[in-house]
Amino acid sequence: MNILENTRPIIEDYEKKVAQLDFQIESYDFLNSGNNPYSFAGKMHNDCLDYLIKKEAGSTIKKLIFSAADFYVTNDNGFIKKFDDSFIEKLSISSETLFLEIKKKSTIDLEIINLLKCNKSMTSELLWLLDSILNFNILFDSFTNKIEELNQWELKIKNSNYNNETQIPLLLSSAVARYSFHFWYHNYETNNFKKRDRKKKCLQTTFTVAADVIGTAGGAVAGFTAGGPVGAVVGGVVMGGAMSGAAYSIFT
């Protein structure tokens, strides 16, 4: 038996896993996650990301923040018109601080989460969520199992005694994580590379999703203070989209 014949089963097994993952992601019903009343924000987020990548790729984080805000004013019936430029400027400053630390460390850890200055419960839950994302092996772990894990976590958050100021940013972050996985899996073209390159692209995907989630959480915390639940959605999708777009620029 020659070398090619020896390695054929390994190659075929790998290709089977890739095809299975592609099918899982393509067939997953993102709109009906079940436990998360803020899943709609994930769709808003992906629409904005698509706009930012096409229009503002390589821009500064501040430019991404203001472009994201403009996108929602234009495309979501004035959803954020009651939030003035000072609020968007605040998101811009927070994003720049977070992004500089993420870029310097090339990871997202407790020290970075602490920059959000959220309460202990939210810090603990965000740490779990981000660890779950960063330790997800897209190549070989089940995508549907990962989403189900998120679903169960969302159910726990929804049934907890946390107040809205804690619950809403966490649920927004998870909704964005789900949609962000879908968006970046395709944007990084992870299904078009040989094994070594695909592994690199998958690591880039998980890192970018994690940046997305920490941005969403930060924006939602600031937004809730400025405008309650609506403010949390606004802040989350604007800052999450901008952070994600900025993280993408690291790899392009």
- Could you give a short account of the major beta sheet? none
How many strands in all?
A: 0
* Bulk shape: globular
C-alpha Rg, in Å?
18 Å
Mean pLDDT: 76
Assign the structural class, choosing from mainly alpha, mainly beta, alpha/beta, alpha+beta, or little secondary structure: mainly alpha
Separation of termini? Answer: 42 Å
Poorly predicted runs are 1-5
Order of helices and strands: HHHHHHHHH
Estimate percent helicity. Answer: over 70%
Number of helical elements: 9
Residues in β-strands, percent: under 5%
Walk me through this protein's architecture.
The protein is mainly α and 252 residues long. It has nine helices and no strands. 43% of the residues are buried.
Key attributes of the depicted protein:
single chain; 252 residues; mainly alpha; 77% helix; disordered N terminus
Offer a quick outline of the entry.
This protein has 252 residues and is mostly helical.
How do the strands and helices of this protein lay out in sequence?
Layout: H1 3-27, H2 39-56, H3 61-75, H4 85-105, H5 110-113, H6 120-134, H7 143-158, H8 164-187, H9 195-250
